[in-house]
Specification:
binds iron/sulfur cluster; binds S-adenosyl-L-homocysteine; globular; 344 residues; 8-stranded parallel β-sheet
């Protein structure tokens, strides 16, 4: 439910203003504004989404990602349907109301299998289900929607077409955006986002990313710093900057206003208080990991990822304390889109 309808309508940002805000030495002004706006539109509640990383097989070869097809050093795993359902049941026991099923683009885990898994989770838990399994055909998306999945996350990664197509061989930005449009038409709550600090990315590109997010009228926006992985072509590129990422998170709030914004694991992986800082600068969601311990270290999208030795219950304790230490509250509802006002 929207706490303050007025807060949702705000000033429009021009590209120049966004570039200046991103370039500013000091982000304090936008940090404060983003925190106030978060409070007005989301309140003090922080939503927890239990993340199940169910397969690290991927048919794609994204230059930034450790799961890319050509990374032959990675031990691949694919959880069984039953294991995924059990992890979702565990998420429910830990008090979460949503699970996010994420994987590489794994042809070995068919859409039929995913549909069955979604159905079983719905039957057994009634949790909200978010999918983050990459690009599919319209027909596949439709089938997945009809099984009861509620939300879909698919970042556009960068709005710079040249950069996108260089970093994602064989993929096109238009196709990605078309996929996102289809997901919206099918009635999904849609999340997208980008990485900060990709090699060759400029502040103008980041301003364009923000304007694209505004135009897409997203329900959820996830952003994190790019972190170079040693087994990828970008191994020698510098990682995304903490402060720039935090300024970007604040601007996501100020530009998109009533969206759900996670304090991402990537931010927590480049600074011990990265997620806390994001929660104080516009974010209102955490994504505790509920993947079984034995698989975690293999879902190595980037190195030095946090929580790879923890159990699901450790992560539950950790995010709970984090929320309370900031004087915030654990959300009790499903945390559906703030735009559709479907909060249960
Ligand atoms: N295969 C799906 C979902 C898994 S990847 C997809 O690509 O949509 C989830 C996200 O991890 C990607 O959207 C990307 O933004 C992020 N990611 C990949 N490699 C990364 C890296 N090296 N540093 C930071 N984030 C990365
Ligand atoms: Fe595969 Fe997603 Fe990684 Fe690209 S970002 S290689 S699609 S898991």
């Amino acid at each position: 439910m929207l706490k303050n309808q007025h807060a949702v309508k705000g000033m429009r940002w021009s590209k120049q203003e966004l570039v200046e805000a991103l370039a500013a030495e000091n982000g304090r002004d936008i940090f404060k504004k983003a925190d106030l706006l978060r409070e007005a539109v989301c309140g003090d509640e922080v939503h927890r989404r239990g993340l199940i990383e169910f397969s690290n097989y991927c048919a794609r070869n994204c230059h930034y990602c450790g799961l890319r097809r050509d990374n032959s050093k990675l031990t691949r795993y694919r959880m069984s349907e039953d294991e995924i359902v059990e992890s979702a049941q565990n998420a429910k026991k830990l008090g979460y109301r949503t699970v996010v099923l994420q994987s590489g683009e794994d042809g070995g885990f068919t859409t039929d299998a995913l549909c069955r898994t979604v159905e079983k989770i719905k039957q057994k838990t009634n949790l909200a289900i978010t999918l983050s399994v990459g690009e599919k055909t319209k027909n596949e998306f439709r089938r997945l929607k009809s099984t009861g999945s509620d939300r879909y996350l698919m970042r556009f990664e960068t709005s710079n077409r040249g950069l996108y197509e260089r970093l994602r061989p064989g993929a096109s930005l238009d196709t990605r955006l078309e996929n996102l449009k289809v997901l919206r038409e099918l009635g999904y709550q849609v999340g997208s986002g980008c990485m900060i600090g990709l090699p060759g990315q400029t502040l103008e590109d980041l301003a364009d990313d923000l304007l694209l997010m505004e135009k897409m009228d997203l329900d959820m926006v996830g952003v994190g710093p790019f972190i170079p992985h040693p087994e990828t072509p970008l191994k020698n590129s510098p990682r995304g900057d903490l402060k720039l990422t935090l300024k970007f998170v604040a601007l996501v709030r100020l530009v998109t206003r009533n969206t759900h914004i996670p304090a991402t694991t990537a931010l927590g992986s480049i600074h011990p208080f990265g997620r806390q800082m994001a929660l104080e600068r516009g974010a209102n969601v955490l994504m505790p990991n509920v993947t079984p311990e034995k698989y975690r270290k293999f879902y190595e999208i980037y190195p030095n990822k946090i929580c790879i030795t923890e159990k699901p219950s450790d992560c539950a304790g950790c995010v709970g304390s984090m929320i309370h230490s900031l004087g915030r509250k654990i959300a009790k509802g499903y945390g559906h889109s703030l735009k559709q006002r479907r909060e249960a």
